Amino acid sequence: MAAQIDAMDRNILAQLQQDASQSLDEIARKTGSSKTPVWNRIKKLRAAGVIKQDTVVLDPEKLGLEACFFVLIRTSEHETDWQDKFLTTLQARPEVLEAHRLAGDIDYILKVRVANARAYDVFYQALISEVRIFNVTALLSMEEIKSTTALPL
């Protein structure tokens, strides 16, 4: 269920998505408010779970993680025990940036960030040694055209 937020909340959230390291004074100035109301609104948005965490966005290539793979997984197993093992395995793998359960022919899609194809193979071998998977297709991203963590407000 969506939280009840107004235009000022959206302005504050937009500023935080752009740069969460901004001071309260900067956010207040940019949103046409003052520091205390901005702080109170941010506290309210955190308490409501709208703001989940504060973090930084790193450049993966500058950290040697030059290969981004999208991994399509089909499974013939849909029992709770298998799903629990699969989810636990994914949570333990830092290479997995995102994991989604899908409707349609593909059961799961993973976004995996590694140094190169050899590092992907190490990840793949570890994954299939821990969890039984019917079919895996890996797609290498040749170029990242758009990437954002900012939600449309």
UniProtKB/TrEMBL annotation:
Molecular-function GO term, any one: sequence-specific DNA binding
Alphabetical list of SUPFAM superfamilies matching this protein: Dimeric alpha+beta barrel (SSF54909), Winged helix' DNA-binding domain (SSF46785)
Domain (HTH asnC-type): residue spans on this chain: 5-66
Alphabetized Gene3D superfamilies for the sequence: 3.30.70.920, Winged helix-like DNA-binding domain superfamily/Winged helix DNA-binding domain (1.10.10.10)
GO cellular component terms given for this protein: cytosol
Superkingdom of this protein's organism: Bacteria
Pfam family, one: HTH_24
Keywords: DNA-binding, Transcription, Transcription regulation
Annotated protein name in UniProt: Transcriptional regulator, AsnC family
Organism: Litoreibacter arenae DSM 19593
